[in-house]
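ok so i was messing around last nite and threw this chain in just to see what happens. nothing serious, just curious
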Amino acid sequence: MTEHITPEQLRARVTGSRASHEELVEAVRVKLALSGLQAFPIYTGGIPKFLPGGHMVLQHNPHQIGIADILCPFRDVAYVGGGPVLIGRVALLEMKTGKARRSPVQVRVTKLW
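result:
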């Protein structure tokens, strides 16, 4: 059985919501997997803070600012000194839904590459 998320299912979500973002990340991860590429979602949500009475809230995590949503490692072949050499590479994918745009930190991280 093939896993998939249809475009209609993605459009049915509230634009820009956490749920639509998570479904988009999962759809891209599944598409990459079906293409034979490993893809690992990176949790970029909040840090849980436990309140009295057993309640919990998610707080902003300043350590994850600018981190991509998916890490996709792959190998490439380069020819060094006349012979083939495997080179490990990684693609970092950032997903946006609704009217979301890259943060200034994400723009700076992109320019580093």
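not much to say yet. The chain is about 30% helix and 30% strand.
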